[in-house]
Specification:
Blueprint (H helix, E strand, L loop, with lengths): L1 H19 L5 E4 L2 E6 L5 E5 L4 E4 L5 E5 L2 H4 L4 E3 L6 E5 L4 E5 L5 E6 L8 E6 L5 E5 L4 E5 L5 E4 L15 E5 L2 E6 L3 E5 L5 E5 L5 E6 L2 E6 L2 E6 L4 E4 L9 E6 L3 E6 L2 E6 L5
Antiparallel strand pairs: 1-24, 2-3, 3-4, 4-5, 6-7, 7-8, 8-9, 10-11, 11-12, 12-13, 14-15, 15-16, 16-17, 18-19, 19-20, 20-21, 22-23, 23-24
């Protein structure tokens, strides 16, 4: 009887210890400067030594791209198609295409196409890319082989205030381009202007179905494109420790000086 008592007491103490231990919420610890996620839940992180790593949803290493620095300073990565990853080097005016193993497929030097200064690049659904030429003030659709397929009218002829585009994403047949002082400009597949969504001073913007997510005033912000309303999340994020925040439907991904972690988005609503 005494032996059973001690066994039960030991199990109870172990249970209390487990309850008092805070689980490690970090998906991957490390000194990262940037991350993004594809539709297969693979994660891509850029280390301080300019190494691009691809990890599975469980944190297992899948591929590494060690030649990031050879092309210059990486600006953005578009992984909307995991088989055709677009890496943009703004300072070098260059685009590098990678396959699912992070092997180089092709490289475009935009200046050779007559694009003297590009400020934003993203992937189009047909495998081409969208390029914002901030010297000519227009959006170009460019093939992976370097052929300009189409171009918008010069923005000076369309808008009273010339946009400063630093981010683009294609979603559900529309191209979204962001100017933090004016908002999100939406264009159709042919480059025709559709509407201006007045959300300003957001960071880390992403489009999810009919919603635009971003980070503003220390909170996750959510714009409903159907209701045309903005909802601010409950949780506060300290800008002094956070390098990047990306909100998805179920989780919020947070990059800080310790690594990459995720929390449930339920607690934020």
């Amino acid at each position: 009887m005494r032996a059973i008592f001690f066994i039960l007491f030991f199990l109870f103490c172990s249970f209390l210890k487990a309850q008092n231990t805070q689980p490690d919420t970090y998906f991957s610890k490390g000194d990262y400067t940037f991350f993004t996620k594809d539709v297969l839940d693979n994660m891509y992180v850029l280390t301080v030594t300019d190494q691009l790593k691809k990890m599975s949803s469980k944190g297992d290493s899948l591929a590494v791209f060690n030649n990031v620095k050879n092309y210059g300073k990486l600006s953005t990565i578009d992984v909307s198609n995991p088989l055709n990853i677009v890496v943009f080097y703004k300072g070098q005016n260059k685009v590098v295409f990678l396959d699912q193993f992070l092997h180089v497929k092709n490289t475009l030097i935009l200046s050779k196409l007559g694009v003297l200064s590009a400020s934003a690049v993203c992937l189009a659904f047909d495998g081409n890319i969208w390029v914002y030429d901030d010297f000519e003030n227009k959006i170009l659709r460019v093939s992976a082989e370097g052929k300009i397929m189409s171009a918008t009218t010069n923005f000076r002829e369309i808008f009273n205030a010339l946009p400063t585009i630093n981010w683009m994403q294609e979603n559900n047949g529309l191209l979204y381009a962001y100017d933090s002082t004016q908002g999100v400009f939406a264009f159709d597949f042919y480059g025709s202007f559709k509407t201006l969504i007045p959300i300003k001073n957001w960071k880390f913007i992403s489009v999810l179905k009919n919603k635009i997510m971003g980070w503003g005033q220390k909170h996750i912000q959510e714009y409903d494109m159907n209701a045309k309303t903005i909802q601010s999340g409950k949780m506060t994020f300290d800008a002094s420790t956070i390098r990047q925040v990306v909100a998805a439907e179920k989780f919020i991904w947070i990059l800080d000086d310790k690594g990459l972690r995720k929390i449930s988005n339920k607690d934020n609503k």
